[in-house]
Design goal:
With about 550 residues, the chain is α/β, with parallel strands linked by helices. Helix 4 links the parallel strand 4 and strand 5. It has 2 domains: about 35-85 and about 270-485, Zn peptidases (Aminopeptidase), CATH 3.40.630; about 90-265, Glucose Oxidase, domain 1 (3-Layer(bba) Sandwich). It has 17 helices and 16 strands. It is elongated, with a radius of gyration of 26 Å. About 35% of the residues lie in helices and about 20% in strands. About 45% of the residues are buried. The strands form 2 sheets. Strands 1, 2, 3, 4, 5, 6, 7, 8, 9, 10, 11, 14 and 16 form a 13-stranded mixed beta sheet that branches.
Length: about 550
């Protein structure tokens, strides 16, 4: 018996030594042989933004396959749907009267191209309407004109800048002015017969030559770029002060006139994909640990923090694991999902198309919201999540885990990222929630979501975290429990929280109908988390191969 226990102790010691060696190798490979900067350059600078249905999106899928193949990791594209094929080429906007100058803005997504000579027209703003009849009467006057459709902002300075420099009285005065303007704007829309946003097709049907909006993100120089709400006329988003200048000119009777040349290409109906790569398990090949990140982006910037950084984390984690842990116990699968921005479509399609994989998934690790180091992991309402997630976290270097707050069992994730697609199927799926780094006000779906916003030290930290979590989940002798906790009462509603309901992918998008207005934002997704900002404080079938 004594010899038996000695043998067990020896085997246990050897396992610990082996585990420690692999952990050390992961840290060393991710730190000293990092490919993050090169990957970021190729994806963001060379390929650029990845709007679903664009040639750039397909180029990104094929690029990822080539990268994985070069690392000895089999990869393929899984076609899950079709989308309207569209490509942004160039946008040029000039003010012609009362003086000449170029303006800063861009065409919104899925907007039809102008001719090479463009569209010219006088700028008009909406007056105050008494009722829908007065709005309809005004519509008769806009034929051939370009309509401003957004409320002008009283300031282009973010609130944190006011709070830092203004007197308290001045700051409060500005906020009161803005609130009053917003109230009047909403009331005017209601008088015109709208609820909370404009239906831009109304202006198009009335003969407007074009539409100009300004969807300010509340940060210096940052505007959100979504989709157009017109079928035949240009719809552009204009930088805040250029928009404000035109609005003031129209308001004071200066009759501004602009020219819009917005060149884009239609590519008909095109296939849409997820890119899937696998490191095959040697002991339990039919069980999976899934790495998850959406591949697509909006196209105002280059999609650097939404979700270029999440993509880079998962690609680099797979490369590191292949180099240090080439024969995992369970199969390690990475999914680069398409059309997350329009409602988690790619990941929902995967869950629907591959139920056997989903059924046998140990865990999903998802990364999305920005470039910062991971600071929160929730148990997502799984009753025993503490038992296994804390075990998987234990060997992660303390300089990484000291920044991470964990919540067990936590509550179900109802947010708008791809881990929710797996939660709806009962899979232990965990979002690696990162420090925001002004994500909401500066990079979430904006024109300045670009390479320069990446904090590579934080991204490298996330690679190490993800790779170790994946290794530990793969090696775990036990299958992660899917038993759900009794969810708490929502303090806002007073009702018990519920698990996310089953959702279905949209497999045909923007085909044969007009796109949605930029004023309404994106479809099927909530905004990013409103966390504490540093600048406000201290500044069952085979995967198809294609």
């Amino acid at each position: 018996m004594k010899k038996y226990f000695s043998l067990l102790f020896l085997l246990s010691s050897l396992n610990v030594q082996s585990q420690n060696q692999i952990i050390d190798n992961i840290v060393d490979e991710a730190t000293n042989n990092s490919k993050l900067e090169q990957l970021a350059h190729e994806l963001l600078d060379v390929i650029g933004p990845r709007l679903v249905g664009t040639p750039q999106m397909k180029t990104a899928h094929d690029w990822a396959i080539n990268k994985y193949t070069s690392w000895g990791i089999p990869a393929r594209n899984h076609q899950w749907g079709e989308w309207r094929g569209w490509e942004r080429i160039s946008t040029h906007i000039d003010m012609l009267e009362p003086r000449q100058r170029s303006l800063t803005g861009m065409q919104l997504a899925w907007n039809p191209s102008t001719s090479k000579s463009g569209v010219e027209g006088e700028i008009v703003i909406m007056p105050e309407f008494e009722d829908k009849n007065s709005f309809n009467s005004w519509l008769e006057t806009i034929k051939g004109k370009i309509v401003l459709t957004s409320m002008p902002q009283p300031t282009g300075r973010p609130d944190y800048n006011w709070e830092k420099h203004a007197t308290p009285e001045s700051f409060e005065k500005m906020k009161a002015q803005r609130d009053e303007m917003s109230k009047k704007w909403r009331k005017n829309l209601q008088n015109a017969g709208f609820q909370w946003r404009l239906n831009n097709s109304v202006f198009e049907e009335a003969g407007a030559a074009g539409l100009v909006s300004s969807n300010w993100a509340q940060g210096f120089g940052a505007n959100r770029i979504f989709s157009a709400g017109t079928k035949n006329i240009p719809h552009i988003d204009l930088e805040l002060e250029d928009y404000g200048m035109l609005y003031r000119m129209a308001q004071h009777g200066n009759s501004p006139k602009i020219k819009i040349v917005a060149i884009s290409k239609e590519h008909g109906i095109v296939p849409t994909f997820n890119t899937i790569a696998e490191i095959k398990g040697v002991e339990k090949p039919d069980e999976y640990v899934i790495l998850s990140a959406h591949f697509d982006s909006w196209d105002g910037g280059t999609g650097a923090t939404d979700n270029g950084t999440g993509t880079l984390v998962m690609m680099e984690a797979m490369r590191v694991l292949k180099a240090t842990y080439p024969n995992p116990k369970r199969t390690i699968l990475v999914g680069h999902w398409g059309s997350e921005e329009q409602g988690l479509n790619g990941s929902l399609a995967f869950v629907e198309d591959f139920p056997k994989i989903v059924e046998n998934t140990q865990a999903v690790f998802n990364q999305d919201n920005g470039t910062g180091r991971v600071v929160n992991i929730s148990g997502q309402g799984f009753l025993h999540s503490y038992d296994y997630v804390s075990k998987w976290l234990r060997p992660v270097p303390k300089e990484i885990t000291k920044h991470i707050e964990t919540t067990f069992p936590g509550s179900q994730g109802g947010g708008g990222s791809d881990y929710v697609s797996f939660l709806t199927a009962g899979v232990p799926a965990f979002n690696l929630t990162s420090l925001l780094w002004s994500y909401r006000d500066y990079t979430w779906h904006t024109n300045i979501d670009t390479y320069d916003k990446i904090v590579f030290d934080d991204v490298r930290s996330n690679v190490i975290l993800t790779a170790i979590l994946t290794y530990m989940a793969s090696e775990d002798d036990e299958k992660a429990s899917r038993e759900k906790a009794v969810l708490p009462i929502n303090p806002r509603t007073g009702k018990q929280m519920t698990w996310p309901a089953k959702r279905y992918p949209k497999r045909k998008g923007e085909i044969g109908r007009e796109s949605r207005s930029s004023e309404g934002g994106q479809r099927g997704r909530r905004g990013p988390p409103r966390g504490k900002e540093e600048n406000t404080n201290n500044n069952g079938k085979e995967i198809n191969k294609n």
